[in-house]
Design a protein that fits this description.
This protein has 517 residues and is an alpha/beta fold. It has 18 helices and 17 strands. It has four domains: 3-169, GAF domain (Beta-Lactamase, 2-Layer Sandwich); 199-365, 3-Layer(aba) Sandwich (Rossmann fold), CATH 3.40.50; 368-456, Helicase, Ruva Protein, domain 3, CATH 1.10.8.60; 470-513. The strands form five sheets. The protein has a six-stranded antiparallel β-sheet with strand order 3-2-1-6-5-4, with helices on both faces. It has a five-stranded parallel β-sheet with strand order 8-11-14-7-15. Keywords: ATP-binding, DNA-binding, Nucleotide-binding, Transcription, Transcription regulation.
Length: 517
Amino acid sequence: MTAKSLLTALLPLVSDLSRELPERERYRRLLEAMRALLPCDAAALLRLDGEWLVPLAVDGLSADTLGRRFKVSEHPRFAAILDSPDPTRFASDSKLPDPYDGLVEGLHQHLEVHDCMGCPLFVDERPWGLITLDALDPEQFQPAERDALQAFASLAAATVNVAERIERLALRAEDEHQRAEIYRQASGQQHKELIGQSKVHKRLIEEIRLVGGSDLTVLITGETGVGKELVAQAIHQASARADKPMISLNCAALPDTLVESELFGHVRGAFTGAVGERRGKFELANGGTLFLDEVGELSLTVQAKLLRVLQSGQLQRLGSDQEHRVDVRLIAATNRDLAEEVRAGRYRADFYHRLSVYPLQVPALRERGRDVLLLSGYFLEQNRSRMGLNSLRLSPDAQAALLAYDWPGNVRELEHLIGRSSLKALGQHPERPRILSLEARDLDLPGVGNAPGINAAELAPALPDSAGDLRQALDVYQRQLIEAALARHEQNWASAARELGLDRANLSRLARRLGLR
């Protein structure tokens, strides 16, 4: 590699440093430039978040990779890259499992990565994350290319630094304390992460950030399984009460008498079995947040008592006349239409209005488009770790099946489906495979997984019904195919080209001829 070729690849990134770009676009350009400099089958940028590596951008890897969270201790190649200040290249016969085996985009066979190179990124002299390059050709990378990767890593770190500085400035302009608190809380709690890139998901995140900095009572609504408790946790983490407790109670799990005891506490002798004093959830949550799940199940009697506490901030334990003052932020959740319940006389109007100061609707999974693949990646990585597999992936027809399904049970249904399907698919192998692929038939989705011959091609547009000549009809169909591929890959031309089996330059020329560029 010549100095001229290195300079040619790096100059656009230097120019980008002075431009205001969305974070995702900046990272996409970074990987695109790296693959131009060091041709390979896949590249990734991952941020180190405690003991986890979080993919921020991938090129050439399956869409679900962005939803995965890699625990460093379970991936020795990642650990080796992070432990070395210089680029690391693994021998083609290395026995260390590759985290990306089976995840290279566009490959239906169980091909494993044979040439792998990676480099840590340092920001302000602290480890920030890493970049990786993977190839199916065992001789893809030459020794001299390690120097090129090192030079690229320095500029990549500068790109990351710029992106983070821009983000920090934006956060400070909106609400410095609130947003910094969100970042601090998110840094060590992977299991509470909200994953998604769809427009409706981003709107939800923005609303969480907006209401999180206030003390308003929030009523979270949405279908069963959409993750309402996760949203409540995110609101708490975004608030000034984040360092205080968040106490939860499922109102549907207890009878009325026990609900009152759980909420307000009791004194000795208040009822049969009350052998001592006990603080309720309100007192335990004092200074913090109380989350009431399934609040639509509360009886009218309990609603009246809760309303008094919310209005006055004072409560009495069952069996006691003594008042206790509490400072609690209330977040409630329900899958019921409480406005309709009020109209039907089954819910108190004053209590409903007290709860719904800030209503927050959590979108159903079927409204979130390709987020289903990111969430699948997250659950696949969890199951891969639990099952002790090197790689757990979705075949193209399985991805198509997931995208086509309606998800009445939402994210919870997806989580259970991935776990169940992974176990069933593993049971079909007499010997433990290195790479386990889930096919559409393994998912057993009603009306989708059992359909014969389903594959990703079935998501392509139908042939046009054209009265013109053959050339015109072909142009119309090609235009539809390209537009559909670009939509699936969020306007990433390199990924769309790989899906369509074209060289990117050829796709660009074809798109220009068809009037798409």
